[in-house]
Amino acid sequence: MDAKAIEGLEARLRAFLSEYSDCFGRHEPADHLRRYVRGQLSDLPRKSVEPIALQFGTRPRTLQQFLSHAKWDEDRMRQRMQEQVSARYSSPWAVGIIDETSYVKKGEQTPAVQRQHCGAVGKKENCVVTVHLAYAAQQGLRVLLDGELFLPEGWSADRERCRKAGIPDSMVYRPKWKIALELLERAVGNGVGFAWLTADEGYGRIPEFHQELDRRGQPYVVEVPRNFYGWCQRPEPLHKEHHPGSGRKLKVKSLPPSRVDDLVAHSPRFIHQAWKDYYIKDGTKGPIIWQAKNAVFYYSSQGMPSRPHLLIVARNALDKSEVKYFVSNAALNTPEEQLLAVGFRRYAVERCFEDDKSEVGMDHFEVRNYLSLKRHLIISALSLLFLSQVHREDRGEKCGTDGLSGADGRQCDDLLAAHERAEATGLLGNRSHQDCLCPAAERPGPQEPPQADASPAASDRDQNLLLTSLSA
């Protein structure tokens, strides 16, 4: 980033935030929003309210009031952000990604804090968990569209504790997969379209989650655990009840549902297939290859078979013990490489969490009421969107496709051409990823080492200039 670009960065931020001016009835909270975003984009080591306020000569309590009590419409801000993403980065192959993240907290007054599994440390810890919906489109664009607090059952049952934390009475315990569907419904209602949706096995293990995505007509490829049950050959249900009130049943000759790992190991539909190699990307020790198979699959929901789906199994070619299972409601003739490309797209939301925490300070909140936390999550997503937008503009990127087909199986682009167009750097320009898969036999030639090694240093330097210029 050159000196001229740095000089214009403040103006670009003002222009970006001006599109949210109707979220505020007065100019004071709008000014606080700009300070808060500038603080999140600065090089402050800690980006909580007090350091940001002191950085810009504002009383900490004033900025705390901006989050907790000031009158402004955070729901409209979230809606406007989603509308912007839809209008500017709409793509026929956009992938929505559902995931959750956690924040270690020492006290007991942060909304919804309790001892629970904490992905940030990989064990049970006193923490807060939020569920998110990310959007991955174009080369390198990945942003968080929405996020919501997970309210544990213990908190939900203690309404007095909820009221002290500012959690409205209408907000009760919902399993994470239901929160995810709420986020999806809200984004779609604001005009965001997803060609595909993906999620990890924590969501994929729930048959009702699959059913709800089907009901919404949302194409998906979600990871499932090895003990997800179903059939490769549809069993025959009874068409009438022999005993009133007994519910639907399968005919006696029908086999019970099997685990997906057993189906892959023993079903003729899998064992008579050869593994097919797919090139994922170049790693530090050479090309990374995964092998895959797929077959028609009927998952079990309350003992009854679903409509035809696809079960995809993928294993690391160098470590065959590393196996992933995916289920998709896509057309049965959808190319296997397209299904894998969606399933492996989950890294985009992990990058969003990493960048939002390390660069924006999403995990630096120190609040004791729900509204402050909600507003902090929305503003953090807004800051990340600005960073992504500036980075893309300065790299001169144009809108394009990545070679993913739609759910009807149509190919958007040649896979190899899409691979060659795949991003060379990450959101902040300091990591390398590939978005697309192609058969290993069509794998591009080795990458030139200087390209892979030279860009991070320059990108990191630009990033530091960006952050420093906004903190000035």
Question: Gist?
Answer:
This protein is an alpha+beta fold and 472 residues long. Helices cover 40% and strands 20% of the residues. It has a domain at 224-328.
Keywords:
472 residues, five-stranded mixed sheet
Overview of the structural elements:
The chain has 472 residues and is an alpha+beta fold. The chain has a domain at 224-328. The chain has 18 helices and 14 strands. It has helices at residues 3-7, 9-18, 27-41, 49-55, 60-68, 74-89, 153-157, 159-164, 176-189, 201-204, 207-215, 260-266, 268-271, 336-343, 347-360, 370-395, 415-421, 449-471, and strands at residues 95-104, 114-118, 123-137, 141-149, 196-199, 221-224, 229-231, 258-259, 276-283, 286-301, 304-305, 309-316, 323-328, 438-439. The strands form two sheets. Strands 6, 7, 8, 9, 10, 11, 12, 13 and 14 form a nine-stranded antiparallel beta sheet that branches. Helix 5 (60-68) crosses helix 16 (370-395) and helix 6 (74-89) packs parallel to helix 16. It is globular.
Which percent range fits the helix content?
40-55%
Low-confidence stretches: 399-436, 445-472
Distance between the termini: 16 Å
Overall body shape? globular
Query: Radius of gyration in whole Å, from Cα?
Result: 24 Å
Strand-residue proportion: 15-25%
Number of strands: 14
| Biggest beta sheet attributes | 9 strands, antiparallel
Structural classification: alpha+beta
